[in-house]
Amino acid sequence: MLTLDPSSHLLVLTGAGISAESGVPTFRDAGGLWEGHDVHEVASPEGFARDPLLVWKFYSERRAGMTGVAPNAGHRALVEVERRLGDRFLLVTQNIDGLHAAAGSERIIEIHGNLMRSRCSVCDRAPFADTTAYRAGVAPMCGVCQRAGTDALLRPDIVWFGEPVVADALPRIEAFVARAGKDLRFLAIGTSGLVYPAAGLVDVCRARGGKSWLVNLEPPANAHAFDEVALGKAGDVLPRLLA
Ligand code: BJW
User: Fold this and answer.
1) What is the pTM of this model?
2) Atom 80, ligand 1: which residue's CA is nearest?
3) What's the mean pLDDT when you consider all of the chain?
4) How confident is the model over 2-53, as pLDDT tens digits?
5) Domain span holding position 132
6) How many CB atoms lie under 10 A from the CB of residue 133?
7) In DSSP terms, which residues pair with 129 in a beta bridge?
8) Considering the domain boundaries, does residue 3 fall inside one?
9) 128 in contact with ligand 1, CB cutoff 6 A
10) Does a structural domain hold residue 85?
11) Is residue 41 within 6 Å of ligand 1 at its C-beta?
12) Is 224 a catalytic residue?
Protein backbone atom coordinates (compact mmCIF):
# COMPACT_ATOMS: atom_id res chain seq x y z
CA MET A 1 0.00 0.00 0.00
CA LEU A 2 1.24 3.46 -0.90
CA THR A 3 0.52 5.49 2.22
CA LEU A 4 -0.02 9.22 1.81
CA ASP A 5 -0.72 11.67 4.63
CA PRO A 6 -2.75 14.87 4.26
CA SER A 7 0.29 16.94 3.24
CA SER A 8 1.86 14.42 0.82
CA HIS A 9 2.48 15.61 -2.75
CA LEU A 10 2.60 12.77 -5.27
CA LEU A 11 4.69 13.05 -8.43
CA VAL A 12 3.90 10.18 -10.81
CA LEU A 13 5.99 9.16 -13.83
CA THR A 14 4.54 6.77 -16.39
CA GLY A 15 6.08 4.96 -19.34
CA ALA A 16 4.99 2.62 -22.07
CA GLY A 17 4.23 -0.22 -19.62
CA ILE A 18 1.07 1.47 -18.29
CA SER A 19 -0.46 1.43 -21.78
CA ALA A 20 0.60 -2.14 -22.59
CA GLU A 21 -2.64 -3.58 -21.21
CA SER A 22 -4.56 -1.23 -23.53
CA GLY A 23 -2.79 -2.92 -26.44
CA VAL A 24 -0.21 -0.17 -27.15
CA PRO A 25 3.19 -1.81 -27.79
CA THR A 26 6.11 -0.88 -25.51
CA PHE A 27 9.53 0.02 -26.96
CA ARG A 28 12.19 -2.26 -25.59
CA ASP A 29 10.27 -5.43 -24.67
CA ALA A 30 10.30 -8.43 -27.02
CA GLY A 31 7.91 -7.63 -29.88
CA GLY A 32 8.14 -3.92 -28.94
CA LEU A 33 8.26 -0.93 -31.27
CA TRP A 34 12.05 -0.85 -31.51
CA GLU A 35 12.25 -4.47 -32.64
CA GLY A 36 13.20 -4.33 -36.32
CA HIS A 37 14.03 -0.60 -36.13
CA ASP A 38 17.22 1.30 -35.44
CA VAL A 39 15.87 3.85 -32.96
CA HIS A 40 18.01 6.59 -34.41
CA GLU A 41 16.45 6.05 -37.84
CA VAL A 42 12.90 6.63 -36.64
CA ALA A 43 13.26 8.68 -33.45
CA SER A 44 15.93 11.31 -34.03
CA PRO A 45 16.03 14.57 -36.01
CA GLU A 46 18.95 13.15 -38.01
CA GLY A 47 16.88 10.08 -38.96
CA PHE A 48 14.01 12.34 -40.05
CA ALA A 49 16.37 14.46 -42.18
CA ARG A 50 17.76 11.29 -43.80
CA ASP A 51 14.48 9.50 -44.50
CA PRO A 52 11.25 11.39 -43.67
CA LEU A 53 9.16 8.81 -45.56
CA LEU A 54 10.36 6.01 -43.26
CA VAL A 55 9.70 8.13 -40.17
CA TRP A 56 6.20 9.11 -41.33
CA LYS A 57 5.46 5.45 -42.16
CA PHE A 58 6.46 4.48 -38.60
CA TYR A 59 4.31 7.15 -36.94
CA SER A 60 1.39 6.77 -39.36
CA GLU A 61 1.23 3.07 -38.48
CA ARG A 62 1.23 3.99 -34.81
CA ARG A 63 -1.56 6.52 -35.34
CA ALA A 64 -3.59 3.87 -37.16
CA GLY A 65 -2.83 1.44 -34.33
CA MET A 66 -4.55 3.74 -31.81
CA THR A 67 -7.98 3.16 -33.38
CA GLY A 68 -10.26 1.67 -30.73
CA VAL A 69 -7.57 1.76 -28.02
CA ALA A 70 -8.95 2.77 -24.60
CA PRO A 71 -7.49 3.51 -21.16
CA ASN A 72 -7.18 0.60 -18.72
CA ALA A 73 -7.49 0.06 -14.95
CA GLY A 74 -3.98 1.51 -14.40
CA HIS A 75 -4.86 4.82 -16.07
CA ARG A 76 -8.15 4.94 -14.15
CA ALA A 77 -6.46 4.31 -10.78
CA LEU A 78 -4.36 7.44 -11.36
CA VAL A 79 -7.50 9.48 -12.10
CA GLU A 80 -8.91 8.37 -8.74
CA VAL A 81 -5.81 9.35 -6.79
CA GLU A 82 -5.70 12.75 -8.55
CA ARG A 83 -9.33 13.34 -7.48
CA ARG A 84 -8.27 12.76 -3.88
CA LEU A 85 -5.09 14.85 -3.96
CA GLY A 86 -6.05 17.70 -6.30
CA ASP A 87 -3.13 20.13 -6.70
CA ARG A 88 -0.94 17.85 -4.59
CA PHE A 89 -0.78 15.51 -7.60
CA LEU A 90 1.23 15.80 -10.81
CA LEU A 91 1.43 13.19 -13.58
CA VAL A 92 4.46 13.24 -15.87
CA THR A 93 4.10 10.85 -18.77
CA GLN A 94 6.63 9.82 -21.36
CA ASN A 95 3.78 8.35 -23.38
CA ILE A 96 2.55 10.07 -26.50
CA ASP A 97 -0.67 8.04 -26.75
CA GLY A 98 -3.01 10.49 -24.96
CA LEU A 99 -4.56 7.71 -22.83
CA HIS A 100 -4.13 9.51 -19.49
CA ALA A 101 -6.17 12.47 -20.76
CA ALA A 102 -8.70 10.07 -22.29
CA ALA A 103 -9.06 8.40 -18.86
CA GLY A 104 -9.76 11.78 -17.23
CA SER A 105 -6.39 12.82 -15.75
CA GLU A 106 -6.02 16.61 -15.76
CA ARG A 107 -2.72 17.52 -14.14
CA ILE A 108 -0.57 15.94 -16.87
CA ILE A 109 2.71 16.82 -18.49
CA GLU A 110 3.36 14.90 -21.72
CA ILE A 111 7.14 15.40 -21.74
CA HIS A 112 7.67 13.57 -25.06
CA GLY A 113 4.78 15.23 -26.91
CA ASN A 114 1.68 13.69 -28.46
CA LEU A 115 1.29 11.29 -31.37
CA MET A 116 -1.95 12.94 -32.50
CA ARG A 117 -0.37 16.34 -33.15
CA SER A 118 1.91 17.55 -35.94
CA ARG A 119 4.03 20.64 -36.34
CA CYS A 120 6.22 22.19 -39.00
CA SER A 121 9.85 21.07 -39.02
CA VAL A 122 10.87 24.62 -40.01
CA CYS A 123 8.41 27.39 -39.08
CA ASP A 124 7.14 28.22 -35.62
CA ARG A 125 3.41 27.76 -36.23
CA ALA A 126 1.72 26.18 -33.21
CA PRO A 127 1.47 22.35 -33.14
CA PHE A 128 -1.98 21.23 -34.30
CA ALA A 129 -4.21 18.18 -33.87
CA ASP A 130 -3.53 15.66 -36.64
CA THR A 131 -4.80 12.11 -36.53
CA THR A 132 -3.96 11.40 -40.17
CA ALA A 133 -2.24 8.10 -40.85
CA TYR A 134 -0.48 9.17 -44.04
CA ARG A 135 -0.33 6.49 -46.68
CA ALA A 136 3.07 4.93 -47.43
CA GLY A 137 5.25 7.17 -49.58
CA VAL A 138 3.64 10.42 -48.40
CA ALA A 139 5.50 12.96 -46.28
CA PRO A 140 3.09 15.84 -45.56
CA MET A 141 4.14 19.43 -46.20
CA CYS A 142 3.47 22.57 -44.15
CA GLY A 143 0.67 24.61 -45.74
CA VAL A 144 1.80 27.82 -43.99
CA CYS A 145 5.29 27.54 -45.49
CA GLN A 146 3.85 26.57 -48.88
CA ARG A 147 1.70 29.70 -48.93
CA ALA A 148 4.84 31.72 -48.18
CA GLY A 149 6.53 30.08 -51.16
CA THR A 150 8.83 27.60 -49.37
CA ASP A 151 8.72 23.83 -48.94
CA ALA A 152 8.91 22.44 -45.42
CA LEU A 153 7.99 19.03 -44.07
CA LEU A 154 5.49 18.51 -41.29
CA ARG A 155 6.69 16.22 -38.49
CA PRO A 156 4.95 14.51 -35.58
CA ASP A 157 4.87 16.75 -32.47
CA ILE A 158 6.97 14.37 -30.41
CA VAL A 159 10.37 14.56 -28.75
CA TRP A 160 13.12 12.55 -30.39
CA PHE A 161 16.52 11.63 -29.00
CA GLY A 162 18.79 14.65 -28.73
CA GLU A 163 15.86 17.09 -28.60
CA PRO A 164 14.86 18.97 -25.46
CA VAL A 165 11.70 17.73 -23.77
CA VAL A 166 8.50 19.78 -24.15
CA ALA A 167 9.28 23.42 -23.34
CA ASP A 168 7.42 24.03 -20.08
CA ALA A 169 7.83 20.47 -18.70
CA LEU A 170 10.92 20.84 -16.53
CA PRO A 171 9.93 24.22 -15.03
CA ARG A 172 6.49 22.81 -14.11
CA ILE A 173 8.07 19.73 -12.50
CA GLU A 174 10.60 21.89 -10.64
CA ALA A 175 7.80 24.15 -9.34
CA PHE A 176 5.84 21.11 -8.08
CA VAL A 177 8.92 19.64 -6.40
CA ALA A 178 9.73 22.98 -4.76
CA ARG A 179 6.14 23.35 -3.51
CA ALA A 180 6.13 19.77 -2.18
CA GLY A 181 9.33 20.22 -0.18
CA LYS A 182 9.77 17.41 2.34
CA ASP A 183 6.27 16.10 1.49
CA LEU A 184 7.30 14.93 -1.98
CA ARG A 185 6.48 11.29 -2.80
CA PHE A 186 7.32 9.63 -6.13
CA LEU A 187 5.72 6.78 -8.05
CA ALA A 188 7.09 5.42 -11.35
CA ILE A 189 5.05 3.00 -13.45
CA GLY A 190 5.92 0.87 -16.47
CA THR A 191 9.17 2.46 -17.55
CA SER A 192 12.61 1.08 -18.37
CA GLY A 193 14.48 3.78 -16.43
CA LEU A 194 16.78 4.26 -19.41
CA VAL A 195 15.67 7.54 -20.95
CA TYR A 196 16.61 10.90 -19.41
CA PRO A 197 15.56 13.32 -18.07
CA ALA A 198 12.57 11.17 -16.97
CA ALA A 199 14.79 8.43 -15.52
CA GLY A 200 16.43 10.98 -13.21
CA LEU A 201 13.21 12.04 -11.45
CA VAL A 202 13.57 9.33 -8.81
CA ASP A 203 16.95 10.83 -7.85
CA VAL A 204 15.36 14.27 -7.56
CA CYS A 205 12.89 12.79 -5.08
CA ARG A 206 15.58 10.88 -3.17
CA ALA A 207 17.69 14.00 -2.85
CA ARG A 208 14.77 15.53 -0.92
CA GLY A 209 14.33 12.49 1.29
CA GLY A 210 10.97 11.59 -0.24
CA LYS A 211 9.80 8.01 -0.42
CA SER A 212 9.59 6.38 -3.86
CA TRP A 213 7.62 3.47 -5.28
CA LEU A 214 7.98 1.59 -8.55
CA VAL A 215 5.41 -0.57 -10.33
CA ASN A 216 6.83 -2.53 -13.25
CA LEU A 217 6.51 -5.90 -14.91
CA GLU A 218 10.19 -6.63 -14.32
CA PRO A 219 13.02 -4.77 -12.53
CA PRO A 220 14.13 -1.86 -14.77
CA ALA A 221 17.64 -0.33 -15.04
CA ASN A 222 17.17 1.99 -12.05
CA ALA A 223 15.16 -0.33 -9.75
CA HIS A 224 17.81 0.03 -7.01
CA ALA A 225 16.95 3.74 -6.68
CA PHE A 226 13.43 3.05 -5.33
CA ASP A 227 12.36 2.41 -1.74
CA GLU A 228 9.56 0.01 -2.70
CA VAL A 229 9.24 -2.12 -5.84
CA ALA A 230 6.03 -3.90 -6.80
CA LEU A 231 6.50 -6.26 -9.73
CA GLY A 232 3.42 -7.01 -11.82
CA LYS A 233 1.07 -5.54 -14.38
CA ALA A 234 0.17 -1.91 -13.75
CA GLY A 235 -3.53 -2.62 -14.28
CA ASP A 236 -3.44 -5.26 -11.52
CA VAL A 237 -1.07 -3.58 -9.06
CA LEU A 238 -2.14 0.11 -9.18
CA PRO A 239 -5.79 -0.22 -8.11
CA ARG A 240 -4.60 -2.13 -5.01
CA LEU A 241 -1.55 0.05 -4.32
CA LEU A 242 -3.54 3.28 -4.58
CA ALA A 243 -6.72 2.09 -2.85
C1 BJW B 1 4.94 -3.07 -17.72
C2 BJW B 1 3.88 -3.65 -18.34
C3 BJW B 1 2.70 -3.66 -17.61
C4 BJW B 1 5.45 -3.81 -19.72
N5 BJW B 1 2.70 -3.15 -16.42
N6 BJW B 1 5.01 -2.55 -16.54
C7 BJW B 1 21.69 11.64 -19.19
C8 BJW B 1 22.45 10.50 -19.23
C9 BJW B 1 22.55 9.77 -20.43
C10 BJW B 1 21.91 10.19 -21.59
C11 BJW B 1 21.17 11.32 -21.54
C12 BJW B 1 21.07 12.03 -20.36
N13 BJW B 1 20.25 13.10 -20.59
C14 BJW B 1 19.85 13.05 -21.88
C15 BJW B 1 20.39 11.99 -22.49
C16 BJW B 1 20.16 11.62 -23.93
C17 BJW B 1 18.86 10.92 -24.18
C18 BJW B 1 18.82 9.63 -23.37
O19 BJW B 1 18.19 9.52 -22.35
N20 BJW B 1 19.49 8.61 -23.86
C21 BJW B 1 19.52 7.31 -23.17
C22 BJW B 1 18.86 6.27 -24.06
C23 BJW B 1 20.92 6.99 -22.78
N24 BJW B 1 17.72 11.76 -23.86
C25 BJW B 1 17.25 12.64 -24.73
O26 BJW B 1 17.77 12.80 -25.81
C27 BJW B 1 16.07 13.48 -24.30
N28 BJW B 1 16.37 14.84 -24.52
C29 BJW B 1 17.16 15.56 -23.72
O30 BJW B 1 17.56 15.14 -22.67
O31 BJW B 1 17.46 16.80 -24.20
C32 BJW B 1 18.48 17.56 -23.61
C33 BJW B 1 18.64 18.80 -24.48
C34 BJW B 1 18.55 20.04 -23.88
C35 BJW B 1 18.70 21.19 -24.68
C36 BJW B 1 18.91 21.07 -26.05
C37 BJW B 1 18.97 19.82 -26.64
C38 BJW B 1 18.84 18.67 -25.84
C39 BJW B 1 14.85 13.18 -25.18
C40 BJW B 1 14.37 11.78 -25.02
C41 BJW B 1 13.25 11.51 -26.02
C42 BJW B 1 12.79 10.06 -25.98
N43 BJW B 1 11.90 9.83 -27.02
C44 BJW B 1 11.27 8.52 -27.13
C45 BJW B 1 10.56 8.48 -28.49
C46 BJW B 1 9.32 9.33 -28.45
C47 BJW B 1 8.50 9.16 -29.65
C48 BJW B 1 7.97 7.80 -29.85
O49 BJW B 1 7.14 7.34 -29.06
O50 BJW B 1 8.37 7.22 -30.85
O51 BJW B 1 10.35 8.33 -26.07
S52 BJW B 1 12.39 7.17 -26.94
C53 BJW B 1 11.23 6.10 -26.16
O54 BJW B 1 11.75 5.78 -24.84
C55 BJW B 1 9.97 6.94 -25.95
C56 BJW B 1 9.60 6.59 -24.53
O57 BJW B 1 8.80 7.62 -23.98
C58 BJW B 1 10.94 6.44 -23.86
C59 BJW B 1 10.92 5.63 -22.60
O60 BJW B 1 10.46 4.35 -22.86
P61 BJW B 1 9.70 3.56 -21.73
O62 BJW B 1 8.42 4.23 -21.43
O63 BJW B 1 10.62 3.36 -20.60
O64 BJW B 1 9.34 2.19 -22.50
P65 BJW B 1 10.12 0.79 -22.54
O66 BJW B 1 9.49 -0.05 -23.59
O67 BJW B 1 11.57 1.00 -22.64
O68 BJW B 1 9.86 0.13 -21.12
C69 BJW B 1 8.57 -0.30 -20.74
C70 BJW B 1 8.66 -0.91 -19.35
O71 BJW B 1 7.35 -1.28 -18.95
C72 BJW B 1 9.51 -2.19 -19.28
O73 BJW B 1 10.41 -2.08 -18.17
C74 BJW B 1 8.51 -3.32 -19.04
O75 BJW B 1 8.99 -4.34 -18.17
C76 BJW B 1 7.37 -2.59 -18.40
N77 BJW B 1 6.06 -3.15 -18.67
N78 BJW B 1 4.32 -4.10 -19.64
C79 BJW B 1 3.84 -2.60 -15.89
N80 BJW B 1 1.59 -4.27 -18.14
Assistant:
1) 0.97
2) 233
3) 95
4) 889 999 999 999 999 999 999 999 998 778 887 877 888 999 999 999 999 9
5) 33-65+118-158
6) 16
7) 117
8) no
9) no
10) yes
11) no
12) no
